[in-house]
Design a protein that fits this description.
The protein is built from four helices and five strands. It is of the alpha+beta class. The chain folds into two domains: 71 residues, no CATH class; 59 residues, OB fold (Dihydrolipoamide Acetyltransferase, E2P) (Beta Barrel), CATH 2.40.50.140. The protein has a five-stranded mixed beta barrel with strand order 1-2-3-5-4. The longest helix has 28 residues. GO terms for molecular function: peptidase activity. InterPro entries: Membrane_assoc_protease, NA-bd_OB-fold, NfeD-like_C.
Amino acid sequence: MNDIDAWVWWLVGAAALGIPLVVTAMPEFGMLAVGAVAAAVTAGIGGGIVAQVLVFVLVSVALIAVVRPLANRHARQRPEHATGIDALKGRQAVVLERVDGGEGGRIKLAGEIWSARALDSGQAYDVGQSVDVVDIEGATAIIM
C-alpha cells in the first residue's frame, strides 16, 4: 500500500465520489470529485499532504459556493420559448365556422384548423371574427 503514490489515491477518491454522483444525482459529489482531481494534480507536482488537503478543500468549497447558486438560479427560470400547446395559449385565431355556446365550431390557429368552443357558454363568435385562445383541451381550443 505504501508503494502507491498519493496522486493515485486522490484519483481513486475522485472515482469513489463519482459513484454517489451518478446514483443520487447530487452535483455536490461531482464538485468534491473535481477537488480530489485538483489534489491529485497537486500531489503529482510534488505538493505535500497539507497542500493536497488544502487544495482539495479550497477547490471543493469554491465550486460549491459558486456553482450551486448559479444552478439554483438557472433551475428557477422559466424557459424563454414556449413550445407545443403552451405556445398556442394567448394567440389570436380567426373563426372559420360559427362557435356558439351549445356547440363548438372551427378556428384557424397558427395556420392549422382547430375545433373550438367558447369559454363562456353564453357567448357566440361569427365567421371571420378574431378571437383569443385561452386554453387547449385535447384537440379543442378554448376561445374568448
